[in-house]
Amino acid sequence: MTLHLLKCRPKPLVISATQSSEPKPVFTFISTHHVDGSRLGVDGTRCSARSDQRYVSPASELLYRWTVLTRNSILCCNCGAPIDGTVAAGALCYDCIKLTIDVSQGIQREGTLHQCRDCDRWLSPPNQWLVAQPESRELLALCLRKLRGLSKVRIIDASFIWTEPHSRRIKLKITIQQEAFQGTILQQTFEVEFVQANQQCPDCQKSFTHNTWRAVVQVRQKVTHKRTFLYLEQLILKHGAHRDAINIKEIHDGIDFFFSARNHAEKFVDFLSSVVPMKSKKSQELISMNIHTSEKTYKFAFSCEIVPICKDDLVALPIKLAKQIGNMFPLALCYRVGTAVNLLDPNTLQTAEVATPIYWRAPFTPIADIPQLVEFIVMDIEITGPTKGRFVLADCTVARAADLGVNDTTYFCRSHLGALLNPGDSVMGYLLAGTQFNNNEFEAIEQSKTYKSAIPDVILVKKHYPRRKKASGQKRNWKLKRMAKEESEMAPRKQDQERLERDFELFLRDVEEDEELRHTMQVYKAQQEANAMEMETDDEDEDEQGPQIPMDQLLDEFEEMNMQDAA
């Protein structure tokens, strides 16, 4: 029998401080061949040449024990246990290495994390504030960065240990490795505890202190209602454009947004210009100046004026401008307001777009808006054929709802609502016959020989649906989020408060009726109201109810800072 011995290259010995292990030899048996064709394995067992079945023979066992006992052995200098001298680390056995050497020595075991309880951000020294959720990767990285001495070892694993939330404690379980001796690596696991301390961030400090802002964005629109600002508020909430604002203040004809830095205000102005047609003007005021270094401190103000044209407004275009945008009829209806004003001629379905720069070169104002709408009853309707998107041209015969039973006055007109109206439906529109408008552009249209005869008696705007009454107790199964705003020093009068409530109700109706408008904002489920509506049985006809928003288009409610509910 011949014994072949292979000396292996020495490798670092990894010792775990939590588990015990026995020494492994630094050499390996390849095989020992027997005269009968069998071979001897590494563990001293003999394998048959024709089978993989192993068995241990007395001769093999004696050979293996002789090999282990005759190699170089020494005694541990601490406990006297025999160990292999070729792999001994400092003449210590594995147990003594784990007991006498602490690779986590010098690593901080306790620490303090500062959190702002107003905005829930964490302080990352020296002056950076981070947003991190509990037990998140960002919070774990912040905790590891705050531990002194951790950079000298190798981190194998790190995880959170559950603690009661009200205990204000954060515990980590960290596993590290470090070379204890040459060729010996020790792995150890330990715990670190952090205490949560409250510290207000500079942004929140400024929000609770008066006159600490550095930039203000003043958004204004010269109209008598708040429908544009209600829509703009939903766009701001959807895109989170108000996150950098330290205060939001609502005034009579607009909203003021206060920021702690000029770049935040400029970013907000850029967002406004991307969603509404507006123009802005920048001004600055000197606060202080250092005469030695010539350093100056300014306060910046951005004045943003939104185009005073809203959806469903009736406008009279300057005749020159009407010819420039496609030679359309100067009396048009505004059907959408985005980054530009989109106009529609109800008689021909011709559309045109007035860009913001073009509008401010030749500004015009609406001659009639939503409060001046009159309810009409459709007596007869006939589709004439031309269609354009969701608009269908039709000839309509209508009568004022207030004139039914009083006189037989009817009006003939053309409308773009051919796909929605049926005889007997209610429709809202502007009555031009016998109405005087104090508008220079409209007077120029009346004096024009080209357009005077084409002025219609009635312009229909939208279909009218019967609404739920407050006394019935019916509520919507959806709701919108509102920004937390600070009201001005002068509280609104009773009539102003009623006007605000009326404008908001009209805006909610537009959200229900206009699917295109609804897709640009976030509409949330009102869970309690939705469950109540499902349990109720309504005996009224479905046609008498207003439009409803499908439940699959509603989002689940969640909590967010600086937001409040609005039904």
From TrEMBL:
MF term (GO), any: ribosomal large subunit binding
Domain 60S ribosomal export protein NMD3 SH3: start-end pairs: 309-355
Annotated GO CC locations: cytoplasm; nucleus
Residue ranges crossing the lipid bilayer per the database entry: none
Localisation: Cytoplasm; Nucleus
Swiss-Prot/TrEMBL keywords: Cytoplasm, Nucleus, Protein transport, Transport
Nmd3 N-terminal domain: residues covered: 76-306
Top-level taxon in the UniProt lineage: Eukaryota
An individual GO BP term: protein transport
A Pfam family annotated for this UniProt entry: NMD3
Biased composition (Basic residues): 470-482
Amino acid composition bias (Acidic residues), ranges on this chain: 535-545, 554-567
Signal peptide limits: none
Domain 60S ribosomal export protein NMD3 OB-fold: 373-463
Region (Disordered): 470-498, 527-567
Biased composition (Basic and acidic residues): 483-498
Main location: cytoplasm
Function: Acts as an adapter for the XPO1/CRM1-mediated export of the 60S ribosomal subunit.
Similarity annotation: Belongs to the NMD3 family.
Protein name (database record): 60S ribosomal export protein NMD3
Organism: Aureobasidium pullulans
